[in-house]
Amino acid sequence: MEYKIISFPITMPFGNTENTVYPTLLWDKQNIILVDCGFTGSLPYLEKELQQHGLSVEQITGLVLTHHDHDHMGAAAAIRRVNPHLKIYASAAEAPFISAHEKPLRLRQAEEMQKTLPPEQQDFGKAFCEMLRRVEPVQVDVFLRDGERMDWCEGCRILATPGHTPGHISLLMEKDSIIITGDAIALEGGKPVIANPQFTLDIEQATKSMEKLLSLKAKAYYCYHGGILVSASKP
Q1: Are the C-beta atoms of 149 and 157 separated by less than 8 Å?
Q2: What end-to-end distance do the CA atoms of the chain give, in Å?
Q3: Whose CA is closest to 39, among 82, 10, 62, 15?
């Protein structure tokens, strides 16, 4: 095996609906890197998907967290309990929120929004804040810097894509011209869009980050929300 870059779905119940996200696996002779890991409670779903590829959570060598949102890092602490030797990677700007050395920005935002929600949305807002409080923090072992090149799958370039959160990163797989977007781009109806604009912390910055990724004209964009966009062009 030279290497494989695999986007796979994790679908789990979320309130009265189901929610699907698409983590990515970077698998070469030396490394098995998981990029983002789903919600709190998604470990069994993750294990099931890895088994389809003949892998287990114990074999993962690294976990990249594109940012500190609950649907991207929710299972990180559970994964580390199963696999304590795993290295966790993130940007230095996201690390304090991932480790809860500082109150996560998403929780601060949700608590602020709660104050102004209309009565019929109060219960949902409260439940959302509670869910964010239940996300287990995890220590970041390695800080990833903008422009840094990792040796994963014959070359992975770290791209700073702030906006959704301040330290958000995306990954460019150089040999295959694949960009793993995190929440810098979501896919809706086959078109690239800003992920959850109502929760995006800096919409102007997020727009610039999306444009930056699309301007690279990658062959494929692996979006955490929506799946794979092939040969993207500007919307």
Answers
A1: yes
A2: 36
A3: 10
